[in-house]
Amino acid sequence: MTKPTCVALLAFVFTVSGCAAEDLMTRARRIQSEVIGVDSHIDTLQRVLMEKADIGKRLSDGEVDLPRLREGGMHAPFFALWVPTFYKGAEAIRRMLDLRDAVQSVFDRYPGEIELATSAADVERIVRSHKIAAILTLESGHEINDDLAVLRMFQRMGIRSMTLTHFRNNNWADSSTDKPQHNGLTEFGKDVVREMNRIGMIVDISHVSDKTFYDTLAVTTKPVIASHSSCRALSSLPRNMTDDMMRALGHNGGVVGINFGGGFLNQQQAEKELANINQIGSAEPNLTGKALDDYTAAMWAKNDWRHPKPTVATLDDVIAHIDHVVKVAGIDHVGIGSDFDGISDVPRGLEDESKMPALTAALLQRGYSEAGIKRIMGGNFLRVIREVIGK
Ligand SMILES: [Zn+2]
């Protein structure tokens, strides 16, 4: 082959492969614009409350704001109202109300951009009107202060989901990152699950111990979710789910949202993540009121989750976890639960919410159908919302 012919051939090959890559991203962006994208766990409200972050504008740090949700096609995020477990009793209720007020301030400031969604029909209507549909979720169960009346009032404030525990056990459920205390769910814990089923709140089993998970499945009459967990077979964190748990979740009709934290995705990062979990979970300051809020703000600033640390985890790890859930539980039982704005590192290639089309392109490349990708990106969670809330 002459040199000019060789150069021409190489140019042709590069042009064709370049076109193929571009076509894939164009298709991915179209899919993301058509799908109702659900990210089942983001911690962005902490930034609204503690940093007064204006999420209506594109922020230069962190992973989520309204422009990046739109760009990524994730129009229906679950905003977590996370209260650390060191907020005890009525203090936890007060902190939850502060977070509910913070998200209300976003709704009031940007009525043309974002709206509270309390049903599947709401989600569809709001997304159709080109707004972000905000689904509110409690993290975690200690926020109800062991009182079903408080749970019911939170539901009336528009809360539609609750993770039963966080890093520590509460008075009625064991956590995956604490010493077993109740052998799973107590009798009151089972009542909490029954009441959530009755009033249309999604039970979230991310963070609970394995025994609490199985106790929950034995009691619930509705599908449950693991809003931000990944596969323990691929990264051995207690926060991740075993294959047996994912099979059981599949039989229940539930969905696991893949967590994008490096330790959740990649075994090499897992040890570091464990140290981080233990550090967050071990704090027990003997404070109340403003002093406690100041302590929390200092802890938040010290963790500096706005600036993710380097990680070996990549977009390919996310694909591996999605593939694994599909293999073990089926494609109807996997979704996206990034944990953005609450993780210390983010996978390379999926650095923030705007990058979601890259994940869709990678799924297309792996041979996933458009219909299957749409279920993964949000259709599966929307089904659970409809089944649990009833409309
Ligand atoms: Zn969490």
Layout: helices, strands, pairs:
Elements: H1 3-34, H2 44-51, H3 66-72, E1 78-82, H4 90-109, E2 114-116, H5 120-128, E3 132-139, H6 148-156, E4 159-163, H7 187-199, E5 202-204, H8 210-219, E6 225-226, H9 243-252, E7 255-258, H10 262-265, H11 267-282, H12 289-303, H13 315-328, E8 334-336, H14 356-365, H15 370-389
Parallel strand pairs: 1-3, 2-3, 3-4, 4-5, 6-7, 7-8
Helix pairs in contact: 1-14, 2-4, 6-7, 8-9, 13-14
Bound molecules: zinc ion.
Describe it:
The protein is of the alpha/beta class and 391 residues long. The chain has a single domain (35-389), classed as TIM Barrel, CATH 3.20.20. 50% of the residues lie in helices and 8% in strands. The chain is built from 15 helices and 8 strands. The strands form 2 sheets. Strands 1, 2, 3, 4 and 5 form a 5-stranded parallel sheet that branches. α6 links the parallel β3 and β4 (159-163). α6 (148-156) packs parallel to α7 (187-199). The chain is globular. The termini are far apart. The model is unreliable at 6-18 (pLDDT under 50). The structure holds zinc ion (ZN). Residues 139, 207, 228 line the site of zinc ion.
Q: Low-confidence runs (pLDDT<50, min 5 residues)?
A: 6-18
CATH topology tier name: TIM Barrel
CATH architectural name: Alpha-Beta Barrel
Quickly count the helices.
Answer: 15
- Global geometry: globular
Helix content: 40-55%
Main β-sheet description: 5 strands, parallel
Order of helices and strands: HHHEHEHEHEHEHEHEHHHHEHH
Overall radius of gyration? 21 Å
The distinct bound ligands, ions and cofactors come out as: zinc ion
Strand composition percent: 5-15%
Number of strands: 8
CATH superfamily: Metal-dependent hydrolases
Mean pLDDT level: 93
Number of domains: 1
Roughly how many Å apart are the termini? 67 Å
Kindly provide the name of the CATH class.
Alpha Beta
* Category by helix and strand content: alpha/beta
**Assembly state of the chains shown:** single chain
